[in-house]
Amino acid sequence: MRMQYDNPILSRRAAAVFALPTLVFIGVFLAFPALWAIYIGLTNLRLTGISAIQPRFVGFANFVSILRDSFFHNSLRITAQFVLGSALIGQLLLGLLLAVLLYNVKGPINDIVSSIVILAWIIPEVVVAYLWVAFLDYDFGLLNATRNLLGMPAVNWFFSHPVLSIIIFNTWRGTAFSMLLMGAALQTIPPSFLETADVIGASEWRKFRDIMLPLIRPHIITNAVLITIWTFNVFGPFLLTGGGPAFATDLVSIYTYRNAFKYFKLGYGSAISTIILAINLILASVYMKLARRGRA
Amino acid sequence: MAGVHLEDVSKSFDKVQAVCDVTITIADGEFFTLLGPSGCGKTTTLRMVAGLESPTSGRVFIGDRDVTKEPPKNRNVAMVFQNYALYPHMTVAENIGYPLRIRNKPRAQIDRRVVDVAEGLAIGDILSRRPSEISGGQQQRAALARAIIHEPDVFLFDEPLSNLDAKLRADARTFLKDLQARMGITTVYVTHDQSEAMAMSDRVAVMDQGTVVQIGPPLEVYRRPASVFVADFLGNPSMNLLKGNLTLHEGTPAVQLGAAAVPLVQPPPGIERVAMGDAVTLGLRPEDISIHIQGGEDGIPGEVHVVEPLGSETLVSLKTSVGSVKVKVFHDMDLAPGDVVRLVANPARVRLFDRAGTAIGLA
Amino acid sequence: MKRALSVVALLLIAALFALPILWLVTAPFNPKPTLGLQLAKPTLRNFEGVFRNPTAVRGLRNSLLQAAAAMLIATPVATMAAYAFSRASFPGQHTILYFLILLSSVVSGVSAMVPLYVLMQTLGLIDKHVGLVMVYVGGLLPTNMFIMKDFVDSIPRAYEEAALVDGSTPRQVLLNIAFPLCRPGMAVIAVLIFVSTWSNFLMPFILLRSASKAPASVAIYTFFNEVGIPLIGLIAAYSFIYTLPVVVLYLIVNRKFGFRFYGGIKG
After folding, report:
1. In sequence order, what are the beta bridge partners of B10?
2. Which residues of chain C make contact with A177, given a CB cutoff of 8 A?
3. What is the CATH number of the domain that holds A103?
4. Which fold has domain C29-265?
5. Rounded Cα gap, residues B130 and C246, in angstroms
6. Which pTM was predicted?
7. For residue range B292-343, what is the model confidence (pLDDT) as tens digits?
C-alpha cells in the first residue's frame, strides 16, 4: 500500500502545500473556464443589453445555429486548408528537410541557419504581422519589388491569394519547432547505424528512407499532432488580414472572436469555443495515446 | 561508536516486496558487506539503516537505540553514495564542512576540521574547487571526507567504488579498508562486486530476492556456500555445479555423474537425510579440480575445449558427459583443444547440494 | 559534394526565412521609412520618436509590468509544484499529471477567450492588470511546471538524501540543497514565462480596455496620424525595441542552457 510510504525528502503534507497554488491557478483560470464555456454556450449571454445582465437558457439553440451558419462552414473549410497547408505540409516537411540538412552540416552555417529560422519563431506576434504586411505590400513590399526586378508583375497577395498568404506566413512562423524536434529525434539515432549504411554503400536517399525515417517516425507523428493542435488554435492571421478580404481568411479562431466580441454574442461565441475545445480534446487524446505508447 | 541491529525488517513498495524479514546483527567496529545481484534488496536495506526508507515492518537499532521511527538526522550516520552526491553548487571545502555547518559549529572550527580531514585524505589542495572540476578519484575522497568529518557512529556505503575505473578501484579499495580499520567505525557496505566484498569485509551477507541467504566471513561463504545461488554468485568463474545422483561406491557415499562416480571422502553431516538415488548437485570451485593427462580409472573424463592463459593462472574449459566444467590451472600444462583428460576433485573441497539447491551439511 | 549541396540548400532556405525580417533591421533606422526596403543614411530619429510618444513608452512599461508580474508569480509557483510532483508520491499523482498535460494542450487562448472574458467580467477583473496577470499565470503554469518537473527529475535524489543523512532537517534540505539545485531550471522557465507574456497579443486585446493599461502589443495598433495613415517610422522603431528583449533573452538561454530541450514551449 502506498498509504504507508513516507518520504523523507518531502512529506506528503508538504507536497500537497507545494502543489496547491498551481492546482488552484490552473483550476480557476484554465479548467473552470473550459467547463464554463459549455454552460455559457447554452445561454443567450450578450456583451451588452438585457441579455448581458439576465441571460436566458436556450438549450442547444446556439449549436444548432452555428452548424447551420454558412459562415461557420466557410471558416471550417478555410481552417482545414490552413492546417493542412501550413502545419502538415509546410511546417512538417520543411522542418524535416531543415533537420536532415542541418544534420549533415555542422559549424557556423548550422548556427546561422537555425538562428534565422528560430528568430522567425520567437519574434512577438504583432511584430511578425507588421513584417509580413510590409513584405507582401502591393506598392512597396519586398516581394513585389523583387518580382519587378525580375520583370514579373506585382501581385496583390492578400486579395489574389489570401489563404495561400496566411499559409506561407504561418509556415514561416512555425517551422522552427518542427526543425528542433526533428533535429532532436535525429540526434537519437546512433551514428554507427548510418556509418554501417555508408560502408555498405547506401545512397543518401536510401539512408534517409531506410534508416532515418523509420527510426524517427514516432517523433514525426507526435510532431504532426502537436502542430495540428497549435495551428488550429492560431490567432496571428487576424493581425494580418482581420479575416478578410470578404471572409476569405476567416479562420475558426477569428470567427469566434468576431461573433463574441464584435457582434457581442457571448453565448454564441462560447458555443463555438465548446466546439473548438472538443476538437482540441480529440487531437490531444491522440497525442496522449502516442506519448504513452512512446514511453512504454 | 555503535553496532547495528536489524530485526525482522521488511519493506515493500506498492505490491513489490523489496526486503523480506531480514535480521542482521553487526558488531561495533565491524566491516559488514551486503552483497548480491541488482534488485536483491541490499540498497533498500542500507537505506533503511540510514533512515531514507522506513521499514514496512520490523525494527532498526543503532547501538541500543531503536531508531526505526527516527529521521536520518537523528541517527548520526554518514553515507557515501554511488554518484558521491557532492553538491555541485558548493566548493569541495563547503561540501566537506556541510555536516558541521548544519550543526551550527563555529566557522573557524569548521575550517580547521575541513583542512585536517582533507589533508588526511590527501585532497587538501583541491578544497577551493567545485566538484565538477576534480577527478573521479578525488570526488570519491571528497565524499569520504564529508562522511567522516562529523565522526558518525556508522558508515554507510552504497557501491562507492563502482564509478571508478578498474585500476583506481583497486587502490581505493585498499585505502578504504585501511581507513576503516584505523578509525574503527562500524561500516555497512553495499556492493554487487564479490571481489570487493571478499577483499574488504569482516563478514558478508549474501542477499537474493529480498532475503539474506547466507551470513559469514568472506572465505567461509566462498568455500562453503549455503545454496546453489551463493555458489553460483560468488567466485569468478563461478563454482562448477554438476547434476548427479547419490549412490554408494565401494561402500562409501558417492555422486554418480554419468558413467563416473565421485566418491565423497568426507561425507558432509546431514547426508543421511538424502535418500540413495536422489538427485543432488555437486559443487566444485575451478581451483579445486586437477587435470590428469595420463590415463587412469579415477575422475571424470573430459575433453579440452578452450584454453585461456591469464598470466598467473590458466583457465581451461572442458566438455564432459555431465556438462561443461571450468578448471583453474596454476602450473604449466601442455593442453590443447581436443585433448582428452580426466578431472579429479579435491575431496576436502567438494560441496553437495540437495534437490532444492540447499547445501547439505550447512555448518 | 553531399555537404556542398546541403549547404547550398540551407543557405537558400535561410535567405527565404530572412527576407521578411530584413524590414525590421532596416526600416527603424531609415529617415523616411516605408513598407519597402530602401537603403539610406542610418538615423536614430525614429527611436527618439518612440521615447517622445507617451503611449509608446507607457505600452512598453505596461508590457514590462505585466510580464514581470507573471514571471515573479508563476516561476516559484511552478517550481514548488514541479518539486512536489518530482519528489513526493501521493495517491492520484499520475492522474493529476495526465489531466494537466491534457488541459494544457486542450485549453488554448483561442478556445478559452470567451469564457475567460465572462469569468473576468464576473470577478470584476476586466481592464485590470491583476486579472490579466492571473490569466497569464494560469495559462502558463502547466507547460512550465512540466519543463521544471523534467528538470527536477534530472537532479539525482541522492543530493537531498545525502544532506538528510549529513544531519539536515527537511527545511534545511530545501533551502541549502534543493533550491540552489533548481535555480538553473527556474531561470529557464522565468525567461520562457517572461517572453510568452511579453509577446502575447490576444489576452490583453480582449481583457483590457483602457489605452492607459495597454501593453506594447496592443499599443502598437494606435500609431496612426489624424487621418489614419500609419506612422511607419514609429511602428518600425517600436517593433525593434519591443523585439529586442525577446531576442536577447533567447540568446542568453541558448548560450547557457541550450534551447533545444525546451522546444515544446510554444502555444
Report:
1. B57
2. 263-264, 266
3. 1.10.3720.10
4. MetI-like fold (1.10.3720)
5. 33
6. 0.87
7. 887 677 788 899 999 999 888 999 999 998 889 999 998 878 888 999 999 9
